[in-house]
Design a protein that fits this description.
The protein is an alpha+beta fold and 396 residues long. The protein has 2 domains: 264 residues, no CATH class; 77 residues, no CATH class. 62% of the residues lie in helices and 18% in strands. It has a 6-stranded antiparallel β-sheet with strand order 1-2-3-4-5-6, with no helix packed on it.
Amino acid sequence: MKKINAIQNIKEKMKAGMPRLKEELKKLKGNPFKKKWLKRLDRYIIVKFLGTYFFAIALIISIAVVFDINENIDDFINNKAPLKAIMFDYYLNFIPYYTNLFSPLFVFIAVIFFTSKLAENSEIIAMFSTGMSFKRLMVPYMISAAIIALVTYVLSTEVIPTGSVTRLKFEEVYKNKRQADYARNIQLEVDTGVVAYMERYENFNKTGYRFSLDKFENHKLVSHLTARRITYDTTGVHRWIIKDYMIREMRGMRETITRGERLDSTINMEPQDFLITRGQQETMTSRQLRQYIDNQKQRGFANIKVFEVEYYRRIATSFAAFILTVIGLSLSSQKRKGGMGLHLGIGIALSFSYILFQTISSTFAINGNTPPNLAVWIPNILYLFIAIYLYRKAPK
């Protein structure tokens, strides 16, 4: 009887505890709609990736600043550059500019370094032993690459161009880098069917020499203006003062000639449209670059490839973070006898070759016939094939 009563008591307790047990199981299983998107392991890899990336930036840029100070200290002293200007106008804008320029190198070094460390400590082997696939391992790497790509894009399109204006002005004053102050053989379409030409323009007095303005209707010349000189009036909007001019107007078989000493005209052009200074494309945001390129194309101005290369390069460089991350992870995810030395060597060689190849392809676009949008993407396309090959080979 005692045994029967004990069994009944156990059954009653089990029945009474079933709802509570079900609640506990639900808590353990958790709500499928409240699952954490990032696991602890993902956060661990992201922190390692970004931490190594920013540490590499800080280390290399510190060395670059020291070398730059050593190289330019004489110019700073001779030109009496204020310490405040050196720190805030020059180096405060120097650091983000070169950080963004060598961002692909930093991404590669960061991935190679800390992934090789994980492989050396058998942490990656432990991850794979739990059933994690190589594809799943790549998720936190791609999230980190997306963060870096976004930061790089914002820096290159908005922050760095604004800072480059201040940095280039400092270099012009205190580093004896002369700005372009003249242009020759300028020809551009200032309006529909209206073409302007100047043999020479000098910026110090805002004056152009041997100026002509031709107007066409139905592909026929109807007006031809020539002048000895033309001066830009900075107080007006697109206002030019034409001096010693002659206008020939052709209407059928009839021609009218008008001469004068001075004529004020609102020609739709400014000195900045044809007086391209060194590094001018670096001082424009991407929106300004796009607008400038479109305006110059409408005016028939040919020397804009350097601006197109800069516009497309900003996008291509940001996208490169994903490609180089895949290559770095595929190379360094396996444990080797030589340690991380071989991985670092291969990674640095590939990253430097990427930067070199990017420079060469941009040069082909500027000085050759290669379309700028294709030229800046050629390194990405080539390294994308390398990334796909290594990605497929890595799990094996």
